[in-house]
Amino acid sequence: MARRCPCRLLLAVAAAAVLVAAAAQAQETCSGTVPAPPRRGARVSVASFGGAGDGRTLNTAAFARAVASIERRAAPGGAELYVPPGVWLTGPFNLTSRMTLFLARGAVIRATQDTSSWPLIEPLPSYGRGRELPGGRYTSLIHGNGLQDVVITGENGTIDGQGSAWWDMWKNRTLLYTRPHLLELMSSSDIIVSNVVFQDSPFWNIHPVYCSNVVIRNVTILAPHDSPNTDGIDPDSSSNICIEDCYISTGDDSIAIKSGWDEYGIAYGRASSGITVRRITGSSPFAGFAVGSETSGRGGFIRNITVSDVTLDNVRYGLRIVGDVGNHPDDSYNRSALPIVDALTVKNVQGQNVREAGLIKGIPNSAFSRICLSNVKFTGGAPVRPWKCEAVSGGALDVQPSPCTELTSTSGTSFCTNSL
Questions:
Q1: Cα torsion angle, 229, 135, 65, 211, sign
Q2: Strands (DSSP E) along 30-129, which ranges?
Q3: Does the keyword Hydrolase apply (predicted)?
């Protein structure tokens, strides 16, 4: 049984990197996690509810009326909300169950930069407060709670957060509450997000939290590399998640798996599990793939993870696995609780222009165990700096530069052989 743990952990592959999945998996898919919904029984356009795609008219009320109409209709199979070509300026709006939000080619849902138009909502119970500041948080641009059968798709239309105003407030320390996401779905199931561009989010881009059965595929996520905390996709205390065939280039982690923060995550007690990530390309100044830094749900463990078939270019660390990353929501966390990191396999990873092979740094009283590296090879313009390991055990097979001595034990090599 994992010890209760408020600490944060980070498993970062391709820190400050380009992350490219190998083509060998091109035919594999996990999209069947959520079957395609039946044909929607009705279709409505936001333009029919007083909306105007002129880039100036505020369409918050038009979107709200359109979604309310879908909810009232209760059409067989649900209904589709169609967003025609044009720039649809809006404040935040909620979705409803059994609906499709469809963005036509050339359609842009653009967030208003007037912060007074963004309602405040309660902090997530697994976080206890806003992630950035105490108190509540701004609702996401597109939001839903307790929904079923929701599809967000189209012809590669754009959801534009116009995040620069929020980034400036963060940099100038004038934020009053935690910044909003572009898309947050809470306590929802059977979700599909595909063929849409997410651009310039104020904070994290796509945040499914307390969700199950979610497919995110063929999505493009863009933000400048100096935009703060613009994570691409952050599954949080969620299960049965499929993320594949996406391009992500942002100012923070491309994909970060989370499950609550310190004692609040422990009390909420929901781990993230059953998550598959395939064929992701892009770039990030931080992690291409991260677990953490919020992983307190179900005792703060990270285990049974496989990372394979990855190509890196121009990175500082090829692999970084460290404990106790980040900060705390308050002073009420249990300082004696420690995380568990066990059974992580990293295989078939190639990197060029790598400065340091990797850092694997466990916690003295809770060493990382059964870490397996296989066919992991890094090169650089200058000699790649050697692996650094501390409080870790495991095995290494065909690793260049030569692995640290902590990963050459007989028992660790045996686990490594059996896990491949």
A1: positive
A2: 42-45, 79-83, 86-90, 93-94, 99-103, 107-111, 120-121
A3: yes
pLDDT of residue 381: 87
pLDDT digits (tens, 9 = 90+) for 287-300: 888 888 888 877 67
Does 252 participate in catalysis according to the annotation? yes
Q: How far is CA 320 from CA 6, 15, 199, 279, in A?
A: 20, 7, 28, 20
Q: What is the largest CA-CA distance in the chain?
A: 70
CA angle 371, 285, 157 (to 5 degrees): 110
Any idea what the Cα angle at residue 58 is, between residues 55 and 61, rounded to 5°? 140
> Which CA distances in Å does 329 have to 137, 144, 230, 236?
14, 25, 20, 17
Which phi and psi (to 5°) does residue 166 adopt? Answer: -70, -40
Q: pTM (2 decimals)?
A: 0.93
Q: Considering the domain delimited by 90-419, tell me its CATH architecture.
A: 3 Solenoid (2.160)
Rounded CA separation 219/243 (Å): 9
Q: Which of 231, 236, 252, 253 is catalytic?
A: 252
Residue 256 CB burial class (10 angstroms; 0-12, 13-18, ≥19): buried
Cβ distance 57 to 112 under 8 Å? no
What is the tens place of the pLDDT at every residue in 237-272? 999 999 999 999 999 999 999 999 999 999 999 999
CB 338 within 8 A of CB 299: no
Cβ–Cβ under 8 Å, residues 157 and 103:
yes
